[in-house]
User: What shape does this take?
Amino acid sequence: MDLTNKTDNLEHLRMFNPCDKKSQERVGDIIYYMNFYLPVYPQHIWEELEKQVAKGIIRAPRCIFLPEKALMKQMIMANIKFAGKDKE
Assistant: This one.
């Protein structure tokens, strides 16, 4: 779990804040320039990780970020605002 970098906003997770009209545009711009096909780690590192996971030596994390209070407030406000809306 990453305890150093703070995740205090939905845009850090590449999700837009439905309560902020400009948020969708900002996230769209960020995602447009991301390359999802470029490997971040070399193949030999992935192969070693897969072996360790298969042997039970390491486990994948259940949560990869620790949400800050500000992020939790954004999520709660989005749920309050949109949870009662009819599905389209």
Notes: The radius of gyration is 17 Å. The mean pLDDT is 82. Strands lie at 2-7, 65-67. Residues 2-82 form one domain.
